[in-house]
Amino acid sequence: MRYFSSSLFLLCLFSQASFAQDVAAGKNAFQECVACHSIKPGENLLGPSLAGVYGRQAGTVEGFRYSSALKKSGITWDESSLDQYIANPQALVPGSRMPYSGMADEAERKNLIAYLKTLN
Ligand code: HEC
């Protein structure tokens, strides 16, 4: 029992540490987005604020003029939709106006999404 609980403890420590690493790497990857996206609520630049983006309905930040393609997409931003949009915005939402050609590296996208989740 003693052995069991201490290894469980180590496992927790380990998964927390690797989560923190993902988030740190994701914050780095976010450098590709900062020119156009603020993480401050309500601060829209060339792109809408990404504060609280995880779990949000696409095209709903107040005061930002979205393309009608994104507004009508019916997407909720979750792991799968964010991954597809960041990999290739035009493929997921044809007619979307995000001038970004896409992030090819899957591991990098995963880390970036881990970081975006912390903005809620
Ligand atoms: C050159 C500017 C630019 C860059 C770089 C950029 N974006 Fe965007 N982004 C936009 C614009 C503009 C829109 C709105 C698109 C539309 O209305 O179709 C947008 C929309 C989005 C949305 C949808 C938000 C919502 O409220 O529905 C997400 C998510 C997003 N971007 C994530 C990212 C991420 C993550 C990166 C970095 C990998 C990134 N963007 C890089 C300009 C940019």
UniProtKB/TrEMBL annotation:
Which residues constitute the signal peptide according to the record?
1-20
Under the GO molecular function aspect, what terms does this record hold? electron transfer activity; heme binding; metal ion binding
Tell me the ranges covered by the Cytochrome c domain, including all copies.
21-120
Under the heading InterPro entries, the entry gives: Cyt_c-like_dom (IPR009056), Cyt_c-like_dom_sf (IPR036909), Cyt_c_1A/1B (IPR002327)
The protein, known as: Cytochrome c
Q: By its UniProt entry, which PROSITE patterns does this protein fall under?
A: CYTC
Q: Per the record's keyword annotation, is Ubl conjugation included, yes or no?
A: no
Q: Which UniProt keywords apply?
A: Electron transport, Heme, Iron, Metal-binding, Signal, Transport
* The keyword Metal-binding is annotated on this UniProt entry: yes
Domain of life here? Bacteria
